[in-house]
Specification:
The complex is a heterotetramer, with two copies of chain A and two copies of chain B. By secondary structure, chain A is an alpha/beta fold. Helices cover 20% and strands 27% of the residues of chain A. The longest helix of chain A is centred in the middle third of the chain and has 13 residues. Chain B is of the alpha/beta class. Chain B is built from five helices and 13 strands. Classes of the chains: A alpha/beta, B alpha/beta. Chains A and B meet through helix 4, helix 5 and helix 6 of A and helix 3 and helix 4 of B.
Chain lengths: 235, 218, 218, 235
């Protein structure tokens, strides 16, 4: 099925169309399950003024952190950004804006964006700075705030295996935000460890059906570990 | 005497009931997993997307794709499950996680909690804390009763930006176990050797002491 | 001459582009799958939770756990995927399904559609039709141009309870292909041997005829 | 782990606590993936005045249809109820109430109920009878209606395999509403074809993590086919 072959062979093709001031939603939690090669390509292409929606912003010199080096990021939408000295500096300088969003709300905003739900109510953040300026409504006597969904011009996703139709599965906890990001991009690009033949992935085990995916590229991954902690007897 | 971090964790672990699904925050809460009483089994939820979190890995087991919410390498128990972050917070927000244990800077008599932001210091973010305090059925706050300058962390009204409102019902500190109800802290237990007077002195919010206050049992 | 059901389906299939994800309603829409032009491939979505719907099964392949949205036994193509109903409608509501083809009782010049309820007759329900018309990027309505009493189904304003508002842009009937825009039906193609006059006569809503109207090509 | 052993051995235990006037959310689409034994047990127990939330109401004499025989259902929340003469009769008699809900909205209401989202906005049903009386709000120039979530006193679910921790997987399109129903019950009961040992189900392939499940029972299933259609060459 030529119309359904999503595989591209170069990172240039994978990120074609990315322009200044676009919004990019990225999968990953910390350095786990991040699309390393797609991030490197964004750095190489040099698009500026980006809004990046991602739970974290990598670390100095790795992951999304490398996009800070040439000041490509205008705004981060994240739940936690604490591992990054350059981030801190740009934030204090006013070169970078950050919209802190509770982790579960961030995940749900991505899912809602992909699912055509423009907004939803949640108790998370009510009565806190996160709730300021947001609509409040009571259900069953409890107050909730209205949160709007997120979509991106691009979604960049890291999967374990994909077939050429774009069907993806994720490995262990490298799943995290990836399947949610995948649904919410106008153009969704998935970087994978392995491309398999259609039919190799069991239909009911597919985490991201190919309908959400526009481009698939085979990458190679460093998979840096942020905090290696060993069982007691091995320390 | 004030409890050590491990003793606080030990006391926290006594709150667990057999079959509880538990989410443990970073620090003292995580230690509680080491002290689950005999005959009681709990299953740990890690909000990045893991139910049935196991011990830390051996060198051979280390896998970059297998981490917990603290971004530490970890393993899963047999019978664990792995899912995306929206599903993970559906469990939390939907009240399916029975217990959340987390630290705090301040708690007040209305069950408000401040745990993520100190104005003037760099704000790193709330992570999943706001979702957890809004979602779990039971929330236990563990912290030292006072800060290192001796200022009480149990206040009449929180001064720092809040993580959640009206959500904390139980607090376990290095000095005491307290319940939060009807606009007051109710003293339930004392750390061994700690007097009610000392607890009173270090509790800035309204403290109710009813009858004899027993010492904690471990 | 008015098109047969299969001819309507054939004309519908000419709308598809290579790589389209398509949801086909029950009846004529389903037939369109039989007429996908050479060199074009589409993937069928069935809203009960199947992407990559295949042909009907052989006797040996029949499986009670494998059905389509019409509750018929079905198969999946190689490379298909199966998921829950919330995920399925996330695809639809989120605009990931490129094309929806469905039947209707009435359509009007504002792109409103009525397809699920005739007052006085027993209401069986809308199933997924309201989600489909609210979600798909392109919606094609297929129906006979007039009902069996000769009454036009292309109206100035729908009279029956609506399935969706402002959502229909293209209609393929047994007589014509029409576009809906700016409060009118724009006649685009005639069925072979059907005159513009006959179409005009059977179209109750405002009809715009610009230039020569070609016959449909199959 | 005794506290996590969800397996019960009798249908009485499985449906213990069901009372008159409760709300029961049921998985299944048509007759595909329905908890046959749990439905039979509800009939046997005889609870009346039930509100049943399910995409369909079975057929005469099978599936949820059997609960009509003794008039146990007060209200159905469904998207399509057209396969059932007894249903029609009770509806016309005024003995039965029906709340027709678009299929995607119904699925999302169950998911939201389980996920602690009390309400969400959707374009589905705007301007139709479904939208009447509901709050309308515009996002990006398009009107959406506010839909409230659904939770049940019980959820009855049909899975393929489960372990004693309650982790479930579903087979083929028998998945449908089942994983959504599973999240939305105060008490969630799963009837399965096979009980497997913990660890047999791959952690990342589990559709319903055990945290949502209270009771698991092994059933036997008739699996009636509603519309058997064969490939052309076999007709």
């Amino acid at each position: 099925m030529s119309g359904f072959d999503k595989v591209v062979t170069s990172y240039e093709q994978a990120m074609q169309g990315l322009e200044d001031n676009m919004t990019v939603i990225a999968g990953g939690f910390g350095l786990c399950g991040i699309p390393e090669g797609l991030i490197a390509q964004i750095k190489k292409q040099g698009a500026k003024g980006l809004t990046i929606v991602s739970n974290n912003c990598g670390v100095d010199g790795f992951g999304l952190g490398i996009l800070l080096e040439d000041k490509q990021i205008k705004k981060m939408v994240s739940s936690y950004v604490g591992e990054n000295a350059l981030f801190e500096k740009q934030l204090l300088n006013g070169e970078l804006e950050v919209e802190l969003t509770p982790q579960g709300t961030l995940a749900e905003k991505m899912r809602a964006g992909g699912a055509g739900i423009p907004a939803f109510y949640t108790a998370t953040g009510y009565g806190t700075p996160v709730g300021e300026g947001k609509e409040v409504k009571e259900f069953n006597g409890r107050p909730y705030i209205l949160e709007e969904s997120i979509t991106g011009d691009f979604a960049i996703v890291k999967a374990w295996k994909a077939d050429r139709f774009g069907n993806c599965i994720y490995r262990h906890t490298a799943q995290n935000f990836n399947p949610l990001a995948a649904t919410a991009g106008k153009i969704t690009v998935v970087e994978v460890e392995e491309i398999v033949e259609p039919g190799e992935l069991e239909p009911a085990h597919i985490h991201t059906p190919g309908i959400y995916v526009d481009r698939v590229i085979k990458g190679t991954f460093e998979k840096r570990i942020e905090r290696k902690v060993l069982a007691k007897e091995e320390r | 005497m004030a409890l050590t971090r491990d003793q606080i964790a030990m006391r926290v672990a006594h709150e667990f009931q057999d079959g509880n699904y538990v989410n443990l925050g970073i620090g003292i809460p995580t230690l509680a997993a080491n002290y689950v009483p005999d005959g009681i089994e709990v299953m740990l939820q890690s909000e990045n997307g893991l139910l049935g979190m196991g011990r830390y890995p051996t060198e051979a087991e280390v896998d970059a794709d297998m981490i917990n919410a603290g971004k530490e390498t970890v393993t899963a128990i047999t019978g664990g499950s792995i899912f995306n972050s929206a599903e993970s917070f559906a469990m939390i927000r939907g009240g399916h996680v029975d217990f959340t244990v987390l630290g705090a800077f301040e708690v007040d008599v209305n069950g408000n909690i401040a745990s993520w932001m100190i104005p003037g210091k760099l704000v790193k973010g709330m992570g999943g804390a706001m979702d957890l305090v809004a979602g779990a059925k039971n929330i236990i706050v563990t912290m030292t009763h006072a800060d290192k300058h001796g200022n009480s962390k149990l206040l009449q009204e929180c001064t720092l930006p809040l993580t959640g409102v009206n959500c904390i019902t139980r607090i376990i500190t290095d000095l005491a176990v307290l319940e939060v109800a009807d606009g007051a802290f109710y003293l339930k237990e004392r750390a061994p050797g700690v007097s009610v007077e000392e607890i009173q002195e270090k509790t800035a919010g309204k403290l109710v002491v009813e009858g004899d206050i027993p010492e904690m049992q471990f």
